[in-house]
Amino acid sequence: MDTFTRYRGYAILSLVFAIFFGGYVLWERWPQPEPLTIVAPTPTATVAPSPTPAPLRVHVTGAVQQPGVYILAPDSRLIEAVEAAGGLAVNADSTRINLAAFVHDGQQVFVPYEQTPVPPSPTPLPTPSVVGQPSATGGGPININTASAAELETLPGIGPAYAERIIAYRDEHGPFADPIEIMAIKGIGPATYEQIKNRITAD
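Now predict its structure.
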């Protein structure tokens, strides 16, 4: 009994040490969770959207059912402009235009009529601004007060129907005092007048 009392303090310290040591060994051997790694996504380049092409506005004149200004989709061709204008007129000469040609914004498309004079020599391809427009036949300006229907039809944009309207108008209202008065004819507007103003006279 005296021996236990003498070594009781050592026994308690040994027991405490054993408990701490056992706990440390247990903690070291206890499975540890894998560290959580956060991986940031790889940044990707943002592609800017391409601009949407604007629609085309095309003025269709000449031998079509409904001449006027039409809005077409980008990359439209001449055939689509003609279809927008109601299709070819019965007296249209489609062999003198390229219906597969592209049109562009602000273009005036002229569809020639049948029986208009054929140029005496080959002419260059039509410019993009006016497709199928007849070339000048030479000579002086045409007097719209005295010209025949055949002479009037040689003017750009003036087919048989417009020629007859011009003759009927001057027969009813008298001679034109100025070439600009030709715009009084139904269907002949500023665009057509710009094409023919240097080729007509009222003297």
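The longest strand covers residues 56-62.
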